[in-house]
Amino acid sequence: MRDASLRESRAGAAGKHALLIGLSFLAIFPFYWALNTSFKSPGEIYSPSLFPAHWTFDNYVQAWQAIPMARMLTNSLTVAVGQTVTQLLTSVLAAYAFTRWEFRGRHALYALISLTWLVPFQVIMIPNYVVISDWGLRNSLLGLIIPNVASAFAVLQLYQTFRSFPKALVEAAQLDGASSWGILWRVIFPNLRASIASIGVLLFISSWNDYFWPLLVTNKPEYSTLQIGLQSFMSTEANQWGPLMAATTIASLPILLIYLLLQRQIIDSFVKGGLR
Amino acid sequence: MFHTKTKLGGLLALTMLFASACGNANGTVDGTAAAAGGTDVGEKVKITFYSYNLAIASQKEGTQQLIDEFEAAHPQIDIDPIAVASTEINTKVQADIAAGASPDVAQLVFDGLDYAVHNYNAKALEDVVPAEELSKTFEGFSPNGLELGRLNGKTYGLPFTFSTPVLFYNAKLFADAGLDPNAPPTTWAEVKEAALQIAGKTEAEGVHIGGSAGNDWIVQALIGSNGGEVLSDDRASIRFGEPEAVEAIRMWQDMVLSGAHDKLNDGEVIQAFSEGKLGMLLYTSALQSAFIQASQAGGWELKAAAMPSFGDKPTTPVNSGSALFILSGDEAKQKAAWEFLKFVTSERGYTIITSKIGYLPLRPAIVDDPNYLKDWVEANPLVKPNLEQLTRLRPWISYPGPNWLQIETTLLEAVQQSIQGTGDVAAIMQEAQSRAQSLMP
């Protein structure tokens, strides 16, 4: 009886592992294929071989020369970090205000913020662009960040997170004489750090992948982000797969590095965020 | 501890914003700023040039060479080149016009001609260039080519980089299937026969007609070659539901249903043809250099033929590509822009465009001139069918009104629905015609 249940649990574990290995393969294979293609010569690009027959670095040289890669990577990182930090800051303050105080028009304001999430970017891009242009912020990273310092998505997510924070703890801190500002940063923030971090990761990825807004605001590659640079290897007539994959591999490295360094925190934040 | 972290976070955010502000080069880059207050004759003029060739890594060098040679020959004119992908260039121009920073010259795809004329305040060359100079410049231009950028009798767009649909074919697969690689099919009936033979006797697919997605220029070429049209001459009625158009698309559907035509999409088919797994491909001549490279690496021979016809009806190849539009309202900039347009479409300009960027020369005589393209054409004979089609070229029709793109999409969706299924082509195309008509102004 015990043997049978042991066998069953082993079979179950093997099944789970097989599933996880399969899912890992699905996640890793596209990156592997990009890497593989980036080392292939033009004649081999369309070959389904798992390794290049003739290894070449030409695609990397071509990609590096075609676009100002280092500058675009720095721009992408600056914009993504700047945007994520400011979005988290504004949404933490908004979520705190919405959950902490009963003020007139609170529900209406929250509904309005929720509604802005439903407005497609295409509707607001021209008015936003006109404002940014009037402020003289075209071709600047500030022009990329400023319209995105607040995120309705982050406010809505954090509102739910803050709502679930035990009121008793807040009241206890109040009795101890903590100020509203102190309660937020000393009591609530440390306890919700994992959830806030997981939203931060999503905001970072969304900002990193943004294509349309940098396309409008910047005219020159040196003021633009890497997503715009990658586009230059693609056209309606034909894609330059070799340099495109080389550029994509280079573009993935900083994110990969961040992930390797912060692996534990990122997984923790997703697990905690998911379980909460 | 917590305070320190908070302060560090704040400091980081401020640093980011400061770094971003330092990255601002707007004051010096905005080309239109140089125009403020007009420009006297003799003063240096700077014009902004939006180009999608500059946004394509493989075409950037040739386009930059055009700009460099122009600037060297015209020290008083500076070109501020701005690269924008062709799919986004209309959005970018519209946004910049709304922001009061309209480009001075823009390279726009032909299907947006009508919209550019009515919404971007594009200048007719007849209005900004003296008639005598204009007619002198147009000497030597392909008369059909010049029509491409005309609307209501005026030249708003000067044709710049464009190509025609050609039938690429794999000579090795022809030989393997028992076909003569030196006698490519000239009609769609012959294409079907040859394609079935290739599909039957080799492991490759027979034929693929590109252009059912993206833009409708190849669809327009097919419909026109069967005597149909997509828009009436008075530009008031959509006509792609009429019998001639339906019959052209029905030929395409029959090609797929019979097994002569593969079931791949346009992206996949470029890969399949490059790998030597497809016999024939009707697509843009701009793919030529990529296919030459693939055929050399794959050990097969690439050949090209003119677009096939419907029986003995003459074909009407339609161009893809773009024209240059002068959008500036400033007289000095208009003059400078005209000088630029003249140079890039000159004999020298088209020599660079054809040999370095890969598009057709609008001045056909330069292909026989040893000073320009003669040697290049001899070394690249594949371009010949493409050049021969210039005599039969028809302009890519742009639909009127703000819904021009939806009308184009409606046509393409109807074509896709027809060739991807067994539905009644007449019913599908007529229904699309009536939907498109309701989108007309």
UniProtKB/TrEMBL annotation, chain A:
Gene3D superfamilies: MetI-like. SUPFAM superfamilies: MetI-like. Keywords: Cell membrane, Membrane, Transmembrane, Transmembrane helix, Transport. Coiled coil: none annotated. It is a multi-pass membrane protein. The keyword Cell membrane applies. It is found in: Cell membrane. Belongs to the binding-protein-dependent transport system permease family. This is Carbohydrate ABC transporter permease.
From TrEMBL, chain B:
GO terms for biological process: transmembrane transport. SUPFAM superfamilies: Periplasmic binding protein-like II. Gene3D superfamilies: Periplasmic binding protein-like II. Keywords: Signal, Transport. It comes from the Bacteria. Residues 1-21 form the signal peptide. InterPro entries: Bact_solute-bd_prot1 (IPR050490), SBP (IPR006059), SBP_1_CS (IPR006061). Belongs to the bacterial solute-binding protein 1 family. This is ABC transporter substrate-binding protein. The lineage of its organism: Bacteria, Bacillati, Bacillota, Bacilli, Bacillales.
